């Protein structure tokens, strides 16, 4: 053996040994967890690990308190951790075979994790299954399986700066209910250095116009990105980006719609429930009202955004996790969360109490009746981000051409 | 088997050197072990993942994971779908980044090094520290600083407005600077020859778009932050360049410019190679600025292969494709390094050049 071949052989032996060690580390999990299985869910005495992607201290504290209360009640230990990069930490957990038991799960991630078997579809086991809004249930249904309980949701609405509104001589009767009215008030509100309506350069805002025109990304399970309705919607947006009455938030120098609105660079924005927290924290002096988005040629339309309580297939104590989810999505608890950090309850039984507590925000909840959601198929988030990249140059682009390319990409993932 | 000749075994030493080999292995064992566990094995596992259909759950070495050959590589290079297009865009962006950052930072570093090496400069220590300072600052901190400086109403645009230039909306402007320049003289769409065909899912016209304004800001940042480090390497090399050759050249009547190009620079060749290699590797691996700054936006114009690799693995659950991108990137870096080594190789003096040095009348 020459020195070289010996070195190679040594390195090879090292590799094999190391690989065995590593695979040994990764192999533990579902197969050798010591739990009993009841009704398809595992059960054991193990403590629960809960991973959340928190919007801030208020949310962290609310979730921690709720989990602690449940823990004291049920006798099962539970620990809440806050992720700083949820997608990465979840992926690491799944790869290592030791994921958190419960975690926030977004609609764009669900199909990927469901596809590789990381999630357990526990939706049908929920006692309060029928209480959730049907569109939210649909949002978390992959290949016919209802995977996880929607934890709360938000919709988009039209946020109007009331001071600028009155200064422009507009009254409450002028709140736009059609595209033409929206264009008219935007024109009235546009002044030097301020646009009438601003929104982010992304499908997650522009998509509301597509919904109002009767279009959508996926209709009846088919990719429909380049439908005439969608083209009409983008033509409408493009024409007003061109005449300067609408603008993307970035083009007026703001990071997002809320910032454009708070800095009064725009008199109206299309934003969701989360704008309330930003306004009271950063721009308390700006007065505003929340109205439903105007109807397009095909009626009203908006988009909804939601997260669910994902449950790991590798969790040894799914029974307890299910119990915790039922607790966290109960009417009382959802109203408490809503009060603490703003989102809307995902269950119909809390709707009346929520509307009573937040009469000014009622438009958000009304939107649930006609809200669409971004496509949740595996790979769809890449399609949407490619769409967003193209939307940034909508002003100079061709709507038909943009939507044709989105359609080609979408067909590849919707199948 | 009678003709066996006993030859002394190579490496088996005798006498005073006996046992040194064992001691050597023992001394290097910790490093070999650490490198093996934290570098060599992960790299091999990633290589395996790039050839497998591992979906991100459980160990990639478990029996349920299948070998799919070059499928992942094919998906990002010839698939015709979004994966290929994204990879094309990422390569385009990074190629422009490399093309602009590497020469500019090397030139700037050399310029600064020559400047602070001059004996007559007062306060050399101060300047050296000042130029080096950006290199020791965390890239995340500098990225955040850059986001402020280049915001629409930021300092850069303010300064530009003093000289009558309406600054672009830097980090939100997806248009390439070459396209923007062409648009300013009225050319907004490319010739048929460039738009009809392309490579990796994007047309030649898009390849030639140039870095977007957002990417240009990152390019300036890279030049600003890394020139200091490279300058240090050049300073060290300049100190090893003896003054004699320069003096001799001066006697022969070479001016300062000639002395730099003909005497100093050739002696810096090994350092130049180091600086260019480090620059190339660093530029092809650009990740943290993108991750903290723009996440690939606006319009995917700051997407780089390194970030795309991360994104397709962790967000898209396409682990195989993510690893495949990483290994393609690895090959690109190796090829560039070899190419540049070849360009900067020591050449024998050409006959034409040799003739110039010969004293007249002595020609054979």
TrEMBL record, chain A:
Keywords: Signal, Transport
InterPro entries reported in the protein's UniProt record: SBP (IPR006059)
Pfam family, one: SBP_bac_8
PROSITE patterns listed in its UniProt record: PROKAR_LIPOPROTEIN
Family annotation (PANTHER family): MALTOSE-BINDING PERIPLASMIC PROTEIN, MALTOSE_MALTODEXTRIN-BINDING PERIPLASMIC PROTEIN
Family per record: Belongs to the bacterial solute-binding protein 1 family.
Record's protein name: ABC transporter substrate-binding protein
Organism (species): Microbacterium lacus
UniProtKB/TrEMBL annotation, chain B:
SUPFAM superfamilies cross-referenced by the UniProt entry: MetI-like
Keyword flag S-adenosyl-L-methionine: no
UniProt KW keywords: Cell membrane, Membrane, Transmembrane, Transmembrane helix, Transport
InterPro entries reported in the protein's UniProt record: ABC_transporter_permease (IPR051393), MetI-like (IPR000515), MetI-like_sf (IPR035906)
Localization, UniProt: Cell membrane
PANTHER family: ABC TRANSPORTER PERMEASE PROTEIN (PTHR30193), INNER MEMBRANE ABC TRANSPORTER PERMEASE PROTEIN YCJO (PTHR30193:SF37)
Entry protein name: Sugar ABC transporter permease
């Amino acid at each position: 053996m020459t020195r070289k071949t010996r070195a190679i052989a040594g390195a090879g032996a090292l590799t094999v040994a190391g690989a065995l060690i590593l695979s040994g580390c990764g192999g533990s999990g579902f197969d050798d967890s010591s739990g009993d299985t009841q009704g398809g869910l595992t059960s054991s005495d193990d403590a629960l690990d809960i991973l959340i992607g928190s919007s801030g201290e208020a949310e962290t504290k609310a979730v921690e308190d709720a989990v602690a209360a449940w823990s004291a009640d049920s006798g099962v230990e539970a620990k809440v951790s806050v992720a700083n990069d949820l997608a990465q930490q979840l992926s690491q957990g799944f790869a290592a075979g030791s994921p958190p038991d419960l975690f926030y799960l977004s609609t764009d991630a669900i199909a990927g994790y469901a596809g590789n078997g990381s999630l357990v579809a526990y939706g049908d086991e929920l006692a309060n299954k029928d209480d959730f809004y049907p569109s939210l249930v649909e949002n978390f249904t992959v290949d016919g399986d209802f995977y996880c309980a929607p934890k709360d949701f938000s919709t988009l609405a039209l946020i109007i700066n009331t001071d600028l509104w009155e200064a422009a001589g507009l009254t409450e009767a002028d709140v736009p209910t059609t595209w033409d009215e929206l264009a008219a008030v935007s024109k009235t509100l546009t002044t030097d250095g301020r646009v009438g309506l601003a929104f982010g350069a992304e499908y997650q805002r522009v998509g509301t116009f597509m919904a109002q025109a009767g279009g959508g990304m996926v209709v009846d399970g088919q990719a429909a990105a380049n439908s005439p309705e969608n083209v009409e919607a983008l033509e409408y947006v493009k024409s007003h980006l061109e005449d300067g009455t609408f603008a993307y938030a970035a083009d007026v120098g703001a990071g997002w719609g809320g910032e454009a609105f708070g800095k009064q660079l725009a008199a109206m924005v299309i934003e969701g429930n989360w704008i309330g927290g930003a306004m009271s924290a950063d721009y308390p002096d700006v007065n505003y009202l929340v109205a439903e988005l105007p109807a397009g040629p095909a009626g009203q339309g908006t988009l909804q955004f939601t997260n669910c309580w994902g449950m790991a297939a590798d969790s040894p104590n799914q029974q307890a996790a299910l119990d915790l989810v039922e607790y966290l999505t109960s009417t009382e608890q959802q109203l408490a969360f809503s009060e603490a950090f703003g989102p809307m309850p995902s269950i119909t039984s809390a709707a009346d109490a929520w509307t009573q507590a937040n009469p000014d925000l009622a438009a958000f909840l009304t939107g649930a009746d006609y809200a669409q959601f971004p496509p949740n198929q595996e790979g769809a988030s890449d399609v949407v981000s490619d769409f967003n990249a193209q939307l940034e140059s909508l002003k100079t682009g061709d709507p038909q051409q943009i939507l044709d390319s989105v359609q080609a990409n979408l067909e590849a993932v919707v199948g | 088997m009678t003709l066996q000749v006993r030859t002394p075994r190579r490496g088996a030493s005798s006498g005073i050197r006996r046992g040194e080999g064992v001691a050597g292995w023992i001394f290097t064992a910790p490093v070999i072990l650490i490198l093996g566990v934290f570098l060599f094995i992960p790299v091999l596992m990633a290589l395996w993942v790039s050839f497998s259909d591992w979906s991100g759950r459980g160990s990639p070495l478990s029996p349920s994971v299948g070998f799919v050959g070059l499928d992942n590589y094919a998906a990002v290079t010839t698939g015709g779908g979004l994966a290929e297009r994204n990879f094309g865009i990422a390569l385009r962006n990074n190629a422009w980044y490399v093309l602009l950052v590497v020469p500019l930072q090397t030139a700037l570093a050399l310029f600064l090094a020559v400047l602070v090496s001059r004996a007559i400069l007062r306060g050399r220590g101060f300047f050296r520290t000042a130029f080096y300072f950006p290199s020791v600052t965390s890239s995340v901190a500098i990225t955040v600083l850059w986001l402020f400086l280049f915001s629409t109403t930021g300092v850069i645009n303010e300064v530009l407005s003093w000289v009558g230039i309406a600054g672009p909306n830097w980090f939100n402007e997806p248009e390439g600077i070459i396209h923007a320049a062409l648009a300013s003289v009225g050319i907004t769409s490319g010739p048929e020859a460039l738009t009809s065909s392309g490579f990796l899912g994007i047309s030649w016209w898009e390849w030639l778009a140039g870095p977007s304004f957002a990417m240009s800001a990152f390019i300036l940042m890279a030049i600003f932050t890394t020139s200091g480090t490279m300058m240090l390497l050049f300073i060290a090399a300049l100190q090893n360049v003896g003054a004699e050759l320069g003096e001799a050249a001066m006697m022969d009547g070479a001016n300062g410019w000639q002395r730099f190009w003909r005497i100093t620079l050739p002696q810096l060749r090994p350092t130049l190679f180091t600086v260019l290699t480090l620059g190339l590797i660093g530029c092809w691996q650009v990740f943290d600025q993108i991750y903290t700054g723009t996440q690939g936006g606006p319009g995917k114009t700051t997407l780089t292969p390194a970030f795309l690799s991360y994104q397709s693995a962790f967000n898209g659950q396409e682990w195989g494709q993510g690893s495949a991108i990483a290994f393609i990137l690895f090959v690109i870096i190796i090829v560039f390094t070899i190419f540049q080594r070849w360009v900067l190789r020591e050449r024998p003096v050409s006959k034409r050049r040799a003739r110039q040095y010969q004293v007249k009348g002595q020609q054979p």
